[in-house]
Write the structure tokens for this entry.
Amino acid sequence: MARLPSVRHPASFFDVFTVTAVSIVVVAVVLTIWHGTFVRTEMGVFTVLLFGWVAWAVNRILEESVQRSDRTRRDSRR
């Protein structure tokens, strides 16, 4: 069964890719429908926040992977 991507607790790169792809589509649709400096500024801020979230999510996924690997290595030594 497929699961929805998690924004608060990303567990895989599937989450990051899906949220990024959906966000890009939303920005493209908004910029296609509305034209104006204020809307462009909002979409620019949204894009910067999205890139910040992507960096945080990838860092979180990699940290959890390292922790899981360390636990597995410790358990296999016993």
The chain has two helices and no strands. The radius of gyration is 18 Å. The helical segments are 13-33, 37-77. Residues 32-66 form one domain.
